[in-house]
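Suppose you are handed only these lines of text.
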Amino acid sequence: MSDNNRIVLAYSGGLDTSVAIAYLKDRTGKDVVAVSLDVGQGGESLETIRQRALACGAVESYVVDARDEFANEYCMKALKANAMYEGVYPLVSAISRPLISKHLVRAAHQFGADTISHGCTGKGNDQVRFEVSIASIDPTLKAISPIRDLSLTRDVEIAFAKEHQLPITQTEKSPYSIDQNVWGRAIETGFLEDPWNGPTKDCYAYTDDPAFPPVEDEVVIEFKEGIPVKIDGRDVTPLQAIEEMNRRAGAQGIGRIDLIEDRLVGIKSRELYECPGAVALITAHQELENCCLEREQHRIKRDIDKRWGELVYDAQWFSPAVASLNAFIEDTQKYVSGEIRMTLHGGRAVVTGRRSDTSLYDYRLATYDSGDTFDQKSSNGFIDIYGLPSRVAAARDVRFGNGIEVPNNVVE
Ligand code: ARG
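From them, the structure of the protein bound to arginine can be written out as follows.
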């Protein structure tokens, strides 16, 4: 069946996208294929979601367990890039949209659709991420958003659901807009839109209150070429590593984030996140890089990491620019192997030890005890030459009366 008369909808199982199935059909005359992904968001089973899509009028309902794919190919790239937008946000939603888009395009090809739809509003980043990702994979596909393009509002949704007797039981609306997956959880809107309002308990689901932590938890994470491969000596897949650290760091209240963030569409928005596993893993990975990356490579990588985070936030996952940065980042990881020990407690993941066969830390160069192989005298010549431009410039300043003033207090 490929008469291109169908729409593929990114279907979450919630009210908005459930109503959207029938609403899109009603407004465009096209049949709707629902596509749902498990990216580790928890909650209802894929089968329950699949059945609901069919009950709401989808002609096909396609579900994918994409947890390992998401962890291996998306979260691990973010980890290697130590990705933190604006220094703090590990890109939870930004890295899931490209993966979801890939599956939407696949479904469009499989089920003969010419249009892809999503439940995003016209004010956020996610609409841009879906549509730019989709266009990067198949530029012939069209995009439509029932909320943004067909005026689907909450009132319309409820009236439409009643009128068409849609089998929607959950009309209970969360006070927040939530997006979650195994890399973390984003919480926005509602009373959080007043940036002076502090987060309340009900905002959080992945983390416990860091003010009342259980006893401290020591963890050893082993990385191989930038990827976590063991936790406390047990083999783990990337998905298992993230899940375990979500649990253990979450219990200590690690990874709660609250900021005003610059969206791609130009709006400043108040965002809460909780990303216990991502924050703990990035903390460990960064410290291992401190050991294993050569100084100049490391300096460049910090700039690259920052640009990677901005570009991925800005919907450029499939862009040539990000592909080139990935090549650089990948190359830097070949010696990022070894173990990091951390104490997880009261909201913080603190590194307390590191060991690695590929580390550049050299005890014989660093030590102040006997066994020192660093020739301290050679620093004289180094400082002479390194300080030469400063000395020459200072002499000129003194000649022109512009020398740096020094305090002339006389000590009595
Ligand atoms: N502001 C974050 C981002 O752009 C989170 C978006 C969360 N999406 C949502 N529908 N609540 O990545």
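What can we learn from it? The mean pLDDT is 95. Residues 364 and 373 are 5 Å apart (CA to CA).
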